[in-house]
Each structure stands twice: as C-alpha cells, then as structure tokens.
Amino acid sequence: MESDDTPVTDADLGQAPIKMSAHMAMVDALMMAYTVEMISIEKVVAS
C-alpha cells in the first residue's frame, strides 16, 4: 500500500520515469516481510 492507502499495481511499477512512491512502498513491504521472517520475539529478547 502507498502512503495514501492505495494499493501498488503492476502498472505503477512499470511506469517510466519510475513512480517513486510505489517503489518505496514495495521496498518497505519486502523489508518488513524479511524482518518478520528472520527475527522472532525470542531472538529479540535474547539480544
């Protein structure tokens, strides 16, 4: 989702020049998915 709560579409990611807000929303979602996958509450508490 973009900052204004609209979904990111394939068309948004395929625009030239790039639509920076769509790309930033996609990168943010990918980083959050990776973080959730790799870091558990137990690892955080142990640190």
From TrEMBL:
One of its GO biological process terms is: negative regulation of microtubule depolymerization
Task: Provide a GO CC annotation, any one.
Answer: microtubule minus-end
Name the residues that span the membrane: none
Highest taxon of the source?
Eukaryota
Return the Pfam families for the record.
CH_CAMSAP2_N
Q: Which InterPro entries match?
A: CAMSAP (IPR032940), CAMSAP_N (IPR058042)
Ranges for the CASAMP N-terminal domain? 2-37
Q: Which GO MF term does the entry hold, naming one?
A: microtubule minus-end binding
Q: Which PANTHER family match?
A: CALMODULIN-REGULATED SPECTRIN-ASSOCIATED PROTEIN 1 (PTHR21595:SF3), PATRONIN (PTHR21595)
Put simply, this protein is called: CASAMP N-terminal domain-containing protein
Origin species, per record, is Jaculus jaculus (Lesser Egyptian jerboa)
Q: Source organism lineage? A: Eukaryota, Metazoa, Chordata, Craniata, Vertebrata
